[in-house]
Amino acid sequence: xxxxxxxxxxxxxxxxxxxxxxxxxxxxxxxxxxxxxxxxxxxxxxxxxxxxxxxxxxxxxxxxxxxxxxxxxxxxxxxxxxxxxxxxxxxxxxxxxxxxxxxxxxxxxxxxxxxxxxxxxxxxxxxxxxxxxxxxxxxxxxxxxxxxxxxxxxxxxxxxxxxxxxxxxxxxxxxxxxxxxxxxxxxxxxxxxxxxxxxxxxxxxxxxxxxxxxxxxxxxxxxxxxxxxxxxxxxxxxxxxxxxxxxxxxxxxxxxxxxxxxxxxxxxxxxxxxxxxxxxxxxxxxxxxxxxxxxxxxxxxxxxxxxxxxxxxxxxxxxxxxxxxxxxxxxxxxxxxxxxxxxxxxxxxxxxxxxxxx
Length: 358
Ligand code: GTQ
Known about the structure:
There is one protein chain. The chain is α+β, with helices and mostly antiparallel strands. Helices cover 21% and strands 31% of the residues. The protein has a single domain, classed as Jelly Rolls (Sandwich). 37% of the residues are buried. The chain binds 2,5-dihydroxybenzoic acid. The site of 2,5-dihydroxybenzoic acid has 9 residues, from strand 3 and strand 10.
């Protein structure tokens, strides 16, 4: 008897066995083990870019098709091309651009998902979080912690109002995986304002903390990190400090009560690449979404034989999947905002990253 003919009856027996256990909602591990526990991450997630000049006309067109009130949130979702139809930019993160027109209101609700806003275009809209409003300017980083009431509006500033667009980043896929998604609508369109604008900033954003301090929560008590201040810090460091070969000048947004990230599930950074910067390659397990604030440059993103070069400019957005290698190059001085699920990787002891020589 040959080995091949030995094999046939054994395979037939196995297939028959699989059919019988299948009827009982079971399946053999040994057929899927290699896929379940791969030697390296094997997510369906690709590098991708959404260019502002292509996105902006559609976003404005959406403004004539539906009101913010009717849509609740008028957002064009960035879907990773490898996961169309799932509202995912990476397997663990959601991202999209939200538009609010003058005098519109996006009604108040709360949910267990945490949200971040990074202001991309326009000024003078506001977001209200737990009784306090903050006015949006381009480059501001605003957070909506889990289960806080929030609504958005657009009253303008200095007597003029314009369409305002921001990047929404949410941990929707993470919360869905844990079966922990809850949401409620407020009966009123907008929540009552109970604290003056700037209150949380005065309490928490000046290297001082209230002496009679409540127990720190999971999210930062600062809910707007204005661009003007973050940009000034980067400018000073770019003038006077050593430039990191991989990151340029990269800073993370911090919760002043804990020293940790601003939110428990999403980590956020702002980085400056000097003109002519040619960054060394780096890879990490936290798939990351970038929002370009200033400058023109390139993201070289590679994995094995696969190689993408994304040319970026202001207000473009791009995604770097887990464990793909990224090198950043700047034509002129660039500023990039980014967010990822890094705090979750750190909490579970899963973060891996490599700073490669070339
Ligand atoms: O602003 O509350 O892009 O609840 C998706 C879900 C924004 C928001 C999104 C949301 C919001």
